[in-house]
Amino acid sequence: MAPPTDQLHLDVEAISGICGSISIACWVVVFSPQIVENFRRGSAEGLSIQFIVVWLLGDVFNILGALFQGVLPTMLILAIYYTIADVVLLAQVFSYRGFTLRDIPTPPPAPKRKPHSPPTERTVLLPDHPLPPSDWTHLSPAVPLVGAEAPPPPPPSTRLQSAVFNLLAVLMVCLAGVLGWWLSRSYSSASPAPPASDGGEVAMSFWGQIFGYLCAALYLGSRLPQLLLNYRRKSTDGVSMLFFVFACLGNATYVLSILAYEADCAGDEGCDLAGAYWRYILVNMSWIVGSAGTLVLDAAIFAQFFLYNDVEGGEDEDEEESKQKG
């Protein structure tokens, strides 16, 4: 039977590995729902472009901080993938909206009205705005009026259907993360064991910490443009909820993978395990703050989802009731 310390070490290592694997799985697919939503609508008006730009800058500093600080390989891999995914989403936004940093385009100026003139025989008999050519075809008895109507759009999915779809997607991503961890663990156990570490302390890099805290500040500030855009539009239409669900799950498991760490004092009799652990946490504090802080701001975005969806749902019901009464 293994000693309790070995069991604890295995448990902590497994928790860190599982959380890190789930985090990678979440960040691999995090942008897919929003990209699909933009493609389906043929528009990216619901997404704040400042949100993506600031997030991209944060990911760039994340890479620099991870390189200088020498953090876990998982953290560096995620930082590189974040940057690539940001560039893809930013390219899509620019392709739909043009190269502009404005969230809501300026409406075109209203056409100048012609000065009022006394009615004549022509203005009385002919309207100012003639009917479009498609409407003139209905004047012919050979063209049926009923067949000219466009087919009705498919009914939108209900909230229950959306919730079930989102839940299944999250469960599939979590299972993929656990499966990835299990496969990597099986491969590592079958491979020759790497040389034992010397149990030395984690060195703190000055530039790594600077870039890390710049990354955290940009991550925290990236949500503010999206919150402001949703508030100005009084709507979250065009924004994928699954996009932020994966972002929250990825950040939560990312933080847990960092916290689930057990200091190793092998070969050092005077090593303080608690002190080594807290020094490790201090080295990674900027990444913890950046990921944990965005969870709070994402909670505000979820509140906007429920608040504005309730308002839009009530307006739709009122419109249906008025049509039925009419």
TrEMBL record:
Keyword Protease belongs to the record: no
Top-level taxon of the source organism: Eukaryota
Gene3D superfamilies in the record: 1.20.1280.290
Localization, UniProt: Endomembrane system; Vacuole
Region (Disordered): 106-127
Segments crossing the lipid bilayer: 14-35, 47-68, 74-94, 163-182, 202-220, 241-261, 281-307
Molecular function in Gene Ontology: basic amino acid transmembrane transporter activity; L-amino acid transmembrane transporter activity; organic cation transmembrane transporter activity
Membrane topology according to the record: Multi-pass membrane protein
Any Gene Ontology CC annotation: bounding membrane of organelle
This protein's UniProt keywords: Membrane, Repeat, Transmembrane, Transmembrane helix, Transport, Vacuole
GO BP annotations listed: basic amino acid transmembrane export from vacuole; basic amino acid transmembrane import into vacuole
Primary localization: membrane
Keyword Transmembrane helix set for record: yes
InterPro entries, per the entry: LAAT-1, PQ-loop_rpt
Family in the record: Belongs to the laat-1 family.
Protein name, entry field: PQ loop repeat-domain-containing protein
